[in-house]
Amino acid sequence: MPETALAKISSPTEMSDSGRQRDPLYLFTCHLEWHRRQNIAAYEELLAALDDSDENIRIVAEVLLQRSSPRPGLGEKSVDSW
User: Fold this and answer.
1) Could you tell me where the beta strands, DSSP code E, fall in the chain?
2) ∠ CA(66), CA(24), CA(2), 5° rounding?
3) What is the mean pLDDT of each run of 10 residues along the chain (82 residues)?
4) What radius of gyration, in Å, describes the C-alpha atoms of the chain?
5) Burial class (CB in 10 A: 0-12, 13-18, 19+), 9
6) For the whole model, what pTM was predicted?
7) pLDDT value, residue 52
8) Long-range contacts of 42-49 (CB under 8 A, 24+ apart)
9) Which of left, alpha, beta for 11 (phi over 0: left; psi -120 to 50: alpha)?
10) How far apart are CA 77 and CA 46, in angstroms?
């Protein structure tokens, strides 16, 4: 099975004293995976970023979700697995 762009990014998060931090580049990669392959896990990462403690990450996630294709329907499966 071909390796997806999302799998090539090492770790989407790093732990620090302030808690979980997300990388905007990782979120953009999630956006591409969702837009191109309808990867549900990538979509869920974007949704989870909406609750991030960093306001800038929340803004990035919101913008990327607005630019994505429509929300997945209930019962849809991911085209790719992570």
Assistant:
1) 13-16, 19-22
2) 85
3) 52 44 91 93 95 95 82 58 46
4) 13
5) middle
6) 0.63
7) 94
8) 42/6, 43/68, 43/71, 43/72, 45/12, 49/22
9) beta
10) 17
